[in-house]
Write a structure and sequence with these properties.
The chain is α+β, with helices and mostly antiparallel strands. It is 40% helix and 20% strand. The structure holds phenylalanine. Phenylalanine binds next to strand 9 and strand 10.
Length: 341
């Protein structure tokens, strides 16, 4: 079989799409391609002739392969440019809300809402790492070594007892005070981890810590702040709260707060108290000059109460139907002035 390389090259040059080139490649160099078959036919020749013809055929194959590759590269570039031209998006167009395909998870939404509220009250957002050390998660927070919160059953330890997944966002207040000293007015939303699982407890959940330190911050400020927050978050005129005496190693005195959202039922929503002077000292803040309050709330629980979600476990099932039902359109940003939800 004689091979007309010039003709073949002309055919390649005439191709107008990557798909055409690919078709040509198969018909020339593929398993049953013209050049592949010609190669097989060589076995019928006598050794001398085979050597000569084989050499020539190999050169021709090489030439054809180069022509195919370069034509393919050229056409690929043209096709990519055409695609880019076609895919141009106009960022100035208004968002098409009717076409929304994804939704924001209610926890994300709740975080956005509480961020809007605290920012409006003059709080700065602070964040810390999910993987913490013993000092920030326990020791600095006045959680001594014998404290049950350190027990293997409650905390996820990584590589021994020094590194853990943070069990509460309170670790962030330590980092903030160590870094910037007093005064402080922060809120810290984030993920926390505990060894727990049932209908109302998940091993990963979300908290929002608050910390206010100043020279004359009192318990009355704490109560006023939380009452105001709860009214804003639940979008109600009145949010009566009930305080129960409690114990946290990092606050003294400590309270737990329940709220009645108008149905006569008290729901526990957060823990709080005046920052224990030992914690201030641990973080390098002079406790004879400064005092303040801290609070911590479960975001998952707040979201369940506000949006009427019954089972906590559904939050992390990844069920698209659930997400469509409870999710929020990503374009509607919550704001204190424009309305939260
Ligand atoms: N960290 C506490 C908890 O996880 C909540 C809390 C924070 C209580 C700050 C008091 C002060 O339960």
């Amino acid at each position: 079989m004689s091979i007309n390389v010039d003709q073949i090259k002309n055919d390649i040059m005439a191709a107008t799409s990557v798909a055409d080139v690919e078709e040509l490649r198969v018909s020339l160099l593929g398993k049953k391609g013209q050049l592949t078959l010609a190669m097989k036919e060589l076995s019928g020749l006598d050794p001398e002739a085979r050597k000569e013809a084989g050499k020539q055929l190999n050169e021709q194959k090489q030439e054809v392969a180069v022509a195919i590759d370069s034509k393919k590269a050229e056409l690929e570039l043209i096709e990519m440019n055409a695609q880019l031209e076609k895919d141009k998006i106009d960022l100035t167009l208004p968002v098409n809300q009717g076409k929304k395909s994804g939704t924001l998870h209610p926890i994300t939404r709740a975080m956005m809402e509480l961020s809007a509220i605290f920012a409006n009250m003059g709080f700065e957002m602070a964040e810390g790492p999910d993987v913490e050390d013993d000092w920030h998660n326990f020791t600095a927070l006045n959680i001594p070594e014998w404290h049950p919160a350190r027990d293997m059953r409650d905390s996820f330890f990584i590589e021994g007892a020094e590194t853990i997944l943070r069990t509460e966002t309170s670790a962030v207040q330590v980092r903030k005070m160590e870094k910037d000293g007093a005064p402080v007015r922060i809120f810290c939303p984030g993920r926390v981890y505990r060894v727990d699982l049932d209908a109302t407890h998940a091993p990963i959940f979300h908290q929002c810590e608050g910390l206010v330190i100043g020279d004359s911050v009192t318990m009355a400020h704490l109560i006023g702040t939380l009452q105001s927050f709860l009214k804003s978050f639940f979008e109600v005129e009145q949010a009566p709260i009930r305080m129960r005496q409690h114990h946290f190693p990092f606050t003294e005195p400590s309270i737990e707060i329940d709220v009645d959202l108008g149905n006569g039922k008290w729901m526990e929503v957060l823990g709080a108290g005046m920052v224990n002077p030992k914690v201030l000292e641990n973080c390098g803040v002079d406790s004879s000059k400064y005092q303040g309050f801290a609070f911590g709330m479960g975001i998952d629980r707040l979201a369940m109460l506000k949006y009427g979600i019954k089972d906590l476990r559904k939050m992390s099932d990844g069920d698209v139907r659930w997400l469509r039902h409870y999710g929020y359109a990503p374009v509607e940003m919550p704001s204190k002035t424009e309305g939260l939800s």
